[in-house]
Amino acid sequence: MAVTDAGKTSPIEAAPLPAPPAEAPLKRFLSDFADSRLALGAALLLAAIMIVAFLAPVIAPQDPYDLATVSVLDARLPPGTENFAGYTHWLGTDGAGRDLLSAILYGLRISISVGLASGVIALFVGMAVGLVAAYVGGRTEGLIMRVVDLQLSFPAVLVALILLAILGKGIDKIVIALVVAQWAYYARTVRASALVERRREYVEAAQSLGLSHARIIFRHILPNCLAPLIVVGTVQTAHAIALEATLSFLGVGLPQTEPSLGLLIANGFEYMISGKYWISVFPGLALLLTIVSINMVGDQLRDVLNPRLQK
Amino acid sequence: MSETPILTLENVSKRFIRRLDAAEKLVNVFGADRREQVVHAVDDVSIAVKQGEVVGLVGESGCGKSTLGRVVAGIHAPSEGRLLWRGQDVESASAELQRDARLKVQMIFQDPMSSLNPRMRVRDIVGEAPRVHGLVSGAGVKDYVDDMLLRVGLDPSFRDRYPHQFSGGQRQRVGIARALAVKPEFLVCDESVAALDVSIQAQVLNLFMDLRTDLGLTYLFISHDLGVVEHLSDRVVIMYLGRVVETAPTDELFREANHPYTKALLAEVPRIDTRKRKFQPVKGEIPSPLDPPPGCHFHPRCPFAFERCKREAPALKEIAPGRHSACHLNDGG
Amino acid sequence: MNDAPTLQVTDLKTHFFTKAGVAKAVDGVTLSVNRGEVLGLVGESGSGKTVTGFSILGLVDQPGRIVSGSIRLNGEELVGKPEADLRKIRGRKVAMIFQDPMMTLNPVLRVDTQMIEAIRAHGDVSEEAARERSREALVRVGIPSPDERLQSYPHQFSGGMRQRVAIAIALLNEPDLIVADEPTTALDVTIQAQILYEVQKLCAETGLAMIWITHDLAVVGGLADRLAVMYAGRVVEEGPVDQVLDAPLHPYTRGLIGSVPSHNRRGARLSQIPGMTPSLLHLPEGCSFAARCPRADDACRVMPPLEGFGPSRAARCHHPFTAENDGQEIDLTFNE
């Protein structure tokens, strides 16, 4: 197969490659992911939860924020009761007379939005800090990592609680609190994998090719650190949702008018003893399903993206 | 000398220092004796490489040959000494000249897997640097990359593939194409064929030789494999624990080595022509570069060592035209 | 003297059942090793040489398994034996040395603990006797101050010393056969020579049989009595080391030898084998080397058998370089 080119002496290596070439990485990723039926189920469930949560205004039978449609006369109806307007509350109603199914859908929307927004912002903050620490090294790295250690040595709930006590209530405030409570996890993850990547020969090659530091960090090192970042991102988003629920349950998170799942659970809590279980249990179930499915997807992502487990 | 060498190392040293961390400083306060660890990876090395020459750099692990290669390629700055590019000090040159000099020296790495960015396609791996440095226009990149791939014996249709879709030999060719893309005049090859199978190794070595004639490249060829170095080099430099112990034209070195370490090395290289041989190994282990023996670093393993070798490090002296050796035995001791 | 070989492998097939298909890593290997003999098993990556070694020790893991064939150690069939029996044989009658000695050594245990355990796992020996035997084993592989070394942890040894300890552990129960998989590849030249020296001495003194798996023709050239050259899961040539290296029958062996730089004129182009090793998932019909072979023709579409050439040699080729048809022209063919 030694094709000799007219002017050149090098034989062209045109032999067919061992593996069928150019199998789309995405396709391989999807097929690897689908190896676990459980994870596939979790991913589908998660997708369904996300869709109904974001379509809440369209599909929810009632707008729980619209005080005109909510009647206190309907308060605490058990699941399956028909109200005066002839409408069936399949999951019952809460203490304020809101349709629980609608409240859960809207609550999910808020919980997931808060989780995603804080996760994404924390990811970018942590990623930038971690990359700089790993690439620059020396005192800068030492200083940054001590701050990260300090941050991680406080429970996230505590950090968020203190911040919210200072900032007050509101979606923006809780997102800020969650970002502050979580950026350090991302920074530590990115730094760990960037440290490994930085020592690889392709980074030395990029240096000797005279590429700028910014280019080396963002075009060469960063893409190789994404896999662990995605995994941590998934798990941390689940944490963020749980944390937000905790904070709302404690009454420092979101305002009563825009209840998230945590607040719904808290609202129903006082009625638990009187046997009106549904007000707390159904939002609780929704929260549980969301977090468990995110975590299962995260676990499978870790298995699929782990380079040590790849062929 | 009539001709300015293309690249000169003047008394270059490179030290790596592992500083104490906070915990170690703390235990020192309480009386522990933790010290900074200093590795003299390269210790006062001077080499001049002529235009078009192939210099083989040979040594065992810990001898500093890879570090020296990285100093030459501009990846590490020397701790001491000067690096001259065509007679000009690179350190004190203008930023522009510095960049040019750096681009003129490119490195080919050992591990064909980790030396290519796994998340980049071949066209970006090869085309990125020339585009960034304005060697080629955005529209011309594709043709330029194709040219480079052809040059190293790869089918240009491979340009859209990722490194993991190549075999080891092909990956090494991609690495060579990446280096050639910035029009270098000097290649540092750090164990560039060590990880390849014998038959593939021959293909890549042939490629290096072709590039030398086609492009007039100068090489610093770093290897532990004396057979490869003998085949390729005009001149050989032998290092042991950070120091150069002998340099000589290849023929002369392999005909009659001067330094006892070189002799031991040559005697122990397995050769395909020697069968059922009696191995007569040199005794002892390679000392840790953290704590090299005083005097001549080789004296604990040297069969000819005498009193002076333990005290005094021998200087690299000319023993014949073009030949240098660092051994006290040459002083008529 | 007993004439039966220590190890007789016949038509061994070890296949790996992967998602992408069946990889025939070992596909019909036949070889034998006699007492006191060193067999060099040579091949490039993907030739199946390591899997052959693992198969002999019964160490092939999922998704791989031995599909057919026979492995007889001193006449005893190993294929199909239950894992419990194999474990008794491993370390007692056959031992393996790996490229990375840390495959054998446990990093958190002292060397003496590991060695004594290895002895007592295979026999009722008192601790003192076991310690004495461990000490002797260390002396035998040339480790200075063995008493002190016994008390050390693996990380306190250099790479070469670690490999010696691994060899000493392999020797502990005086096995009949040692399978060594590239044990000196990661070592420096002077350290490699020390290990080769010890191994050579051991085989000559104890009558131990050894399979030395390597890609490096130069190393086995100096060490082995016989060579078996593997390509794409099969032995393509076998014979005494001098005959194989000086007058190779198979074009692949010839190409391999031609690729060694020290075998070529300095500065000249090396003779190279064009192309690359075929994937074990998609082996071509017939001779797997045909696509890279300058002698290939239509006959090569049928797999050639492993044919005998004289009393001690064999090759798997339709067009071998025998005395009648040998010529210098072939080196030129490879060079083009």
UniProtKB/TrEMBL annotation, chain A:
A Pfam family annotated for this UniProt entry: OppC_N
Domain ABC transmembrane type-1: 108-298
Subcellular localization: Cell membrane
Primary site of residence: membrane
Membrane topology: Multi-pass membrane protein
Keyword Transmembrane listed: yes
Keywords linked to the UniProt accession: Cell membrane, Membrane, Transmembrane, Transmembrane helix, Transport
Chain segments annotated as transmembrane: 38-60, 110-136, 148-168, 277-298
Classification via InterPro entries: BP-dependent_transpt_permease, MetI-like, MetI-like_sf, OppC_N
Gene Ontology BP terms: transmembrane transport
Family: Belongs to the binding-protein-dependent transport system permease family.
Name of protein: ABC transporter permease subunit
From TrEMBL, chain B:
CDD domains referenced in this protein's UniProt entry, alphabetically: ABC_NikE_OppD_transporters
GO cellular component, one term: plasma membrane
InterPro entries registered for this protein in UniProt: AAA+_ATPase, ABC_transp_ATP-bind, ABC_transporter-like_ATP-bd, ABC_transporter-like_CS, Oligopep_ABC_C, P-loop_NTPase
Cell compartments where the protein resides: Cell inner membrane
Domain ABC transporter: 24-266
Gene Ontology MF term list: ATP binding; ATP hydrolysis activity
Top-level lineage group: Bacteria
Topological category with respect to the lipid bilayer: Peripheral membrane protein
Any single biological process term in GO: transmembrane transport
Keyword line: ATP-binding, Nucleotide-binding, Transport
Protein family (similarity comment): Belongs to the ABC transporter superfamily.
The protein's name in its UniProt record: ATP-binding cassette domain-containing protein
Record organism: Stappia sediminis
UniProtKB/TrEMBL annotation, chain C:
Any one of the GO BP annotations: transmembrane transport
Compartment(s) where it occurs, according to its Swiss-Prot or TrEMBL record: Cell inner membrane
NCBIfam families in the record: oligo_HPY
Membrane topology according to the record: Peripheral membrane protein
Family as reported in the entry's similarity comment: Belongs to the ABC transporter superfamily.
Pfam families: ABC_tran, oligo_HPY
InterPro entries noted in UniProt: AAA+_ATPase (IPR003593), ABC_Ni/Peptide_Import (IPR050388), ABC_transporter-like_ATP-bd (IPR003439), ABC_transporter-like_CS (IPR017871), Oligopep_ABC_C (IPR013563), P-loop_NTPase (IPR027417)
Signal peptide coordinates: none
The species this protein was found in: Stappia sediminis
Name of the protein in question: ATP-binding cassette domain-containing protein
Statement: the UniProt record of this protein carries the keyword Cell membrane: yes
GO cellular component, one term: plasma membrane
Domain ABC transporter stretches: 7-257
Domain of life, source organism: Bacteria
Record keywords, A-Z: ATP-binding, Cell membrane, Membrane, Nucleotide-binding, Transport
GO molecular-function term, one example from the UniProt record: ATP hydrolysis activity
